[in-house]
Specification:
alpha+beta; six-stranded antiparallel β-sheet; single chain
Length: about 180
């Protein structure tokens, strides 16, 4: 991109498009885009005399504010697919989390699943080697990798093998209040 007075407003020299897969995290997307960017720079350097600049449509641009840790707090009243997208978006930083008895438990990986039950949002439905299944506002979210305070991230089966008597079926995980999350 060429330099201009505004933030990221210069004419484009090379533009690439790429799909984002359903299981992509911010980390995997970052790494993939870094590789694409390196290739784009090499392409430009090889052919810079023949590349024309393309004006940007500044009406399509928007400012992306810095993410806060509070935005990464899971609200179990959200739909399971929204929680799934948030977990992937906040991986590796600031990492999605929920709180249990003043412990911040970080969630690195999971899957949105269909669930039609009438349980309260935040209810732990199942705890087994596949994961922790949590009822959401719509559907359920299966946590597959988590991190307890003072521990490393681990798959749920390792958490279960560790014998901690927390996060059991029937427990209800609280969500942040709608007011405090604004």
């Amino acid at each position: 991109m060429q330099m201009d007075v505004g933030l990221d407003t210069g004419d484009m020299l090379i533009k690439l498009n790429t799909p984002i897969s359903e299981n992509e995290t911010a980390s995997s997307l970052h790494d993939r885009l870094a590789g694409m960017g390196a290739e784009a720079i090499l392409e430009y350097l090889r052919a810079y005399q023949n590349i024309g600049a393309e004006k940007q449509d500044n009406s399509l641009a928007c400012y992306a504010k810095k993410l806060s840790k509070q935005e990464a707090q899971i609200n179990w009243h959200d739909q399971a697919d929204q929680i799934d997208r948030n977990v992937r978006a906040f991986n590796p930083v600031p990492v999605a989390f929920f709180e249990l008895d003043e412990m911040r438990i970080r969630v690195f990986e999971g899957t949105a699943l269909d669930h039609q039950g009438s349980e309260e949002a935040g209810t732990i439905l199942k705890k087994d080697k596949q994961g922790l299944l949590i009822k959401c506002g719509e559907g359920a979210f299966q946590i597959e990798s988590l991190q307890l305070p003072g521990s490393k991230a681990m798959p749920v089966h390792a958490f279960i093998n560790g014998g901690k008597n927390i996060l059991n079926p029937g427990d209800i995980l609280l969500s942040p209040s709608r007011e405090s999350s604004k």
